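Lecture notes, unit on protein representations.

Consider one protein chain, 266 amino acids long.
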Amino acid sequence: MSVAGPTAPTTPRRRDPALVWHQIKYEQLTFWRNPQSAFFTFVFPIVIITIFGALFQGGEPSPFYGGLTALQYYVATIAALSVLGACYSQLAIVLSTRRQDGILKRARATPLPTWMYFMGLLAHCVMVSIVDILLVMGIGKLYGVPMPAAAQLPALVVTLVLGAASFCALGVAVASLIRNAEAAPAVVQFVLFPLMFISGTYIPIKSDWLDVVAGSLPVKPFNEALLGAMSGDAGFPWQKLAVLLAWGVLGAFVAIRRFRWDPKPE
């Protein structure tokens, strides 16, 4: 007669939502433990919109700004710039730095699934973007720019989440092409700055062919979708959202194919 030996104790497995929430908290703690970076992440758009508010306060609606006041226009475009900074620029630089420091390689060796790691990053970037946008709209309100009405919130939320997800995917894709952390800021800004200028972030572009080019790229549709959601349009800009979605899918495809966890170049 055989006697069964003692069974090994089993450790209860944490559920996926708990693991994702743990990763989000980790990203938040990492962000806030670098107070200088966190400070300038929020201060940069505030300084810009404060300067623009002082310059354009009390302006009348103008055809140059699509029938809006200059300040209404810039509240939306600076809000979009905040999302770009949090979800594209900062993410690409952070991932490049973590890879070079070996942090990504160590994270890859843990039981944490890859999708949860990036879900934590995405959620963190969306949270930072929401705070940035609220700050920009709050400063705009002080200068007389009305806050979005309740009917506009669904389109605003969908635009924000889809834009943040798409630019996060593009940030990971660009990070996969960067060879070392020192080159990351230069590569990121080389891509971003021309897009911002041709997409009307700082001044409306009145060129038919440039509008066509910029409209097929992600920044201009995001600017215009946020502008519509913040200035009274309660409808969903499906064409612009489709462009954002397409670029997000492309960014995710490049990231999946080329992203490296190991600091050594291929």
